[in-house]
Design brief:
262 residues, mainly alpha, 2 domains
Length: 262
């Protein structure tokens, strides 16, 4: 093919108009490959949480995705070699992490509801520190390229609407999780302060005890009150940073004022 020839040989050996014709063919090849690729991604995403009976179909879709990606990359390489990247700027280099639907690696709605229900029970598992979150993911560029046909355009719009709805549901769920965590933080601080006050109220509870014993009990009670307030202050200092971050992300200002309360 002309694109496989060196540039000087293409200029000397190709008839006029041949390069433009192949460039159009390569652009059409990229568009057709993206159509198949996106369709396979959508089908694969709907089957990702299905039973093992769909395992064979998922494998077939994976093979179709790989073949479409290979076809697109070949067409894109030819297009860039012939006309450069500016000829069809809506087409880009296809990387492996571009081949995804936004919800591919997200947790199912059932799993999310279970995790949300466990937040207030103390049984929830902690996420790994600095683990990548869904809120920082961006939509892959393959879903922003105009579809090559009316039917595919409708399917593409439907898939984007579904992903938008799922993203909106995730945002609402995250906001609810933040509210629950804020309430747990508030209750923890209030409980520690209550414990400190309780110990202070116990410092003179044994009025009938000998003076030396009363002095020891009083010292112990005051020490416990001091310990609980130190724990409270430590928690406040640890939580103020994440609280400010959440306040910025979610545009909420109530948590900072909450942590400022004794």
């Amino acid at each position: 093919m002309p694109y496989e020839l060196p540039e000087d040989e293409r200029a000397a050996g190709c008839v006029p108009g041949l390069l433009e014709m192949e460039a159009k063919i390569r652009a059409a090849q990229c568009g057709a490959a993206l159509t198949i690729l996106r369709g396979a991604c959508m089908r694969s995403a709907t089957l990702s949480h299905s039973t093992t009976k769909a395992h064979t179909l998922i494998e077939q879709l994976g093979e179709r995705v790989a073949a479409s990606a290979k076809k697109y990359r070949k067409g894109y390489d030819g297009l860039v070699a012939l006309k450069g990247k500016d000829f069809a700027p809506h087409f880009r280099e296809l990387r492996d992490d571009d081949i995804r639907l936004d919800g591919d690696n997200g947790e199912s709605d059932t799993a999310a509801r279970k995790k949300l229900a466990m937040l207030g029970s103390g049984r929830g598992a902690c996420a790994p520190r600095n683990a990548p979150g869904q809120s920082k993911r961006l939509m892959s560029w393959i879903w922003t390229v105009k579809a090559s046909s009316g039917d595919e355009e409708k399917d593409l719009h439907d898939s984007v609407r579904v992903e938008w709805s799922r993203a909106k549901a995730r945002k609402t769920r995250w906001q609810e999780e933040v509210k629950l965590l804020e309430e747990e933080m508030r209750r923890t601080l209030r409980y520690l302060e209550w414990q400190a006050l309780w110990w202070e109220s116990r410092q003179d509870a044994r009025t009938e005890a000998p003076s030396d014993l009363r002095a020891g009990l009083r010292a112990y009670a005051l020490k416990q009150a001091w310990v609980h307030r130190r724990i409270r202050d430590f928690f406040k200092s640890q939580w103020e940073g994440p609280a400010v971050n959440l306040d910025t992300v979610l545009e909420r200002a109530d948590l900072v004022g909450l942590l400022a309360q004794p």
